[in-house]
Amino acid sequence: MTGAKKKKKSMLWGKMHTPQCEDIIQWCRRRLPILDWAPHYNLKENLLPDTVSGIMLAVQQVTQGLAFAVLSSVHPVFGLYGSLFPAIIYAIFGMGRHVATGTFALTSLISANAVERIVPQNIQNLTTPSNTSVLGLSDFEMQRIHVAVAVSFLGGVIQVAMFVLQLGSATFVVTEPVISAMTTGAATHVVTSQVKYLLGMKMPYISGPLGFFYIYAYVFENIKSVRLEALLLSLLSIVVLVLVKELNEQFKRKIKVVLPVDLVLIIAASFACYCTNMENTYGLEVVGHIPQGIPSPRAPPMNILSAVITEAFGVALVGYVASLALAQGSAKKFKYSIDDNQEFLAHGLSNIVSSFFFCIPSAAAMGRTAGLYSTGAKTQVACLISCIFVLIVIYAIGPLLYWLPMCVLASIIVVGLKGMLIQFRDLKKYWNVDKIDWGIWVSTYVFTICFAANVGLLFGVVCTIAIVIGRFPRAMTLSIKNMKEMEFKVKTEMDSETLQQVKIISINNPLVFLNAKKFYTDLMNIIQKENACNQPLDDISKCEQNTLLNSLSNGNCNEEVSQSCPNEKCSLILDCSGFTFFDYSGVSMLVEVYMDCKGRSVDVLLAHCTASLIKGMTYYGNLDSEKPIFFESVSAAISHIHSSKASDKLLFGNLDFPTMSLLS
After folding, report:
1. Is 87 exposed, middle or buried (0-12, 13-18, 19+ CB in 10 A)?
2. Which of 45, 220, 226, 632 has the highest CB neighbour number within 10 Å of its CB?
């Protein structure tokens, strides 16, 4: 009997845990997003714009690959590999359709810290070119790329571990001001690291706390060693790049294909340097020999992983946060969704797999992603097409880049960071919306400048959480008196039946980055239920007051939402008297709610708004200036709805207005 029971229990256990075919297919589609969109790819509509975008992206990938490899203190050819393999892996596992993964300035700068610390420049004279080495490079170059590869591999392992631990859902603590300040500060570091190339100076590698200031101190102390030829060529390159890119931006609607100024500048500078022999005549530093082909894959060196843990964590966190911000921005712009946790897996595998092919750490870059926007890319096919052209460069065109001046390459890096550097303009926005977020931005930027990007990111997150914890105890619940006043005025003033349904939702808590997404989701669920309703008109008058209590932890509704007919025009009144405080994320989410509801033909009115909330929303978003949005009370908002309907001969009747309380 005992054996029979064990056998029966074993059979039941095996039956319970046997995966079904549909479960496997669903899992594969969830973890391999390419299986979701590739079978439905429209060749006729999408192939041409994706091809054009892919060609333009390849130009950026090649130029930035060379530049960011130099920034990472490795041979430029490894930047070409870093522009190829991560893009392929992300196209398979990533969910951002307009995210261009490859070499990235911030991860390259972090990787350079490990490279320069473990394989410093002063041991270069002790190594010689080796015929047995990969691609004929010197042992010194191979030692350096091994360190960068170790950083990439371990950073990818950390990202995959975070995926397994489901930490993607915790990224809401990294707010927009923190990301903006961190990326701006890191971009400032990158520009500083290129000063020696822009000026044609010989400078030792300087890093560590306050290294930013030590670099400029060294420059001013050795100002006489600046090469005038390099400085003039750098200034000319920057002016040409900025001018042409601005013209491309101005006339992008009139011209189908923008001028690839980066490629044109590289060809022109290389040709001019070759013809005039600038390397020997003026002493300009050039890129040098670019080997052809791709070496055989090789496992990263495991013996130095313990020495690069700090940089690996920096690459994992900074690269992911910057990439996720771009993916979320593209998803919001083009109306699709992404899984924050899946992005951990996509970028982790991009770093792990690519590390076997001598690739430096990778992430999505703002300039390349913006390029996909402007050229009309539809899917990740654009990135895959760009990989074809990168391969052509690796196998055929690479050696022709020998004469490319390093000062021109540095100019391309600096101009490519324009999108990050102009985020200084966000300071005005944060000051007008929420001065505490302004303070967080400034302090995060200062910490990033004084220390490093990962330190600035950590400080910004800790500072944000501490401020919210300090502000939450002041939160007050909604005053019942206001609701009773509203009910009294509705019942006495509205005495006719109407086809318009009014939803009154009171927000009982502060609206900050911690609950902004939850607030948006709950509110959209209410509106979607309204649109899906088929309730007859006669049933509307039978609606009674009900309360919707959405807890922050589970988001379940305790009561069902009253429904209206699909043909009715719905008005939504948000009672903001429960707002004790808000931040930039909360204001941006309110504006997003307003714009989304406007697209659904739902009128949104806000009552009991403070002057700071009105100022913040007005400054942040393009709100409808023709219709009043902000009202002193819920009663005033309802009176406005009543008066606006009077002109159409639709008067309010004895209709009970469902009141909802939304605890975000």
Report:
1. buried
2. 226
User: Partners of 604 in the beta sheet?
Assistant: 572
**How far is 641 from 629, CA to CA, in rounded Å?**
11
**Quick one: pLDDT band at residue 321, thresholds 50, 70, 90?**
very high
pLDDT at 297: 92
Contacts of 92 (CB under 8 A, 6+ apart): 32, 33, 34
SS3 505: strand
Decide if pLDDT at 246 tops 80: yes
Q: Which two tokens stand for residue 134?
A: 């990969």
Written as six digits, the tokens of 80 are 């070409």
Which pLDDT belongs to residue 546?
34
> 194: closest CA among 117, 90, 112, 250?
112
Partners of 630 in the β-ladder? 606
Residues in contact with 172: Cβ distance below 8 Å, sequence separation at least 6, in sequence order? 513, 514, 516, 517
Q: How far is the CA of 566 from the CAs of 194, 471, 546, 600, 657, in angstroms? A: 60, 41, 20, 12, 17
pLDDT in tens, 193-221: 999 999 999 888 888 889 999 999 999 99
State the DSSP H helix or E strand holding residue 574, giving kind and residue range, or none if neither: strand 570-575
Identify which of 337-346, 530-539, 569-578 has the greatest average pLDDT: 337-346
**For helices 43-71 and 366-374, angle between their N-to-C axes, nearest 10 degrees:** 160
Which two structure tokens, joined as six digits, stand for 505? 């939702």
Radius of gyration of the chain measured on its C-alpha atoms: 29
CA 408 remoteness from chain centre: 28
| Per-chain mean pLDDT for the chain | 81
At residue 363, what is the residue type? Answer: A
Domains of the chain from N-terminus onward: 48-120+138-207+214-289+301-416+426-471 (no CATH), 475-490+498-529+569-647 (3.30.750.24)
Query: How far is the C-alpha of 604 from the C-alpha of 594, rounded, in Å?
Result: 6
Mean pLDDT over 616-639 rounds to 80
The predicted pLDDT at position 124 comes to 64
Res 440: pLDDT: 94
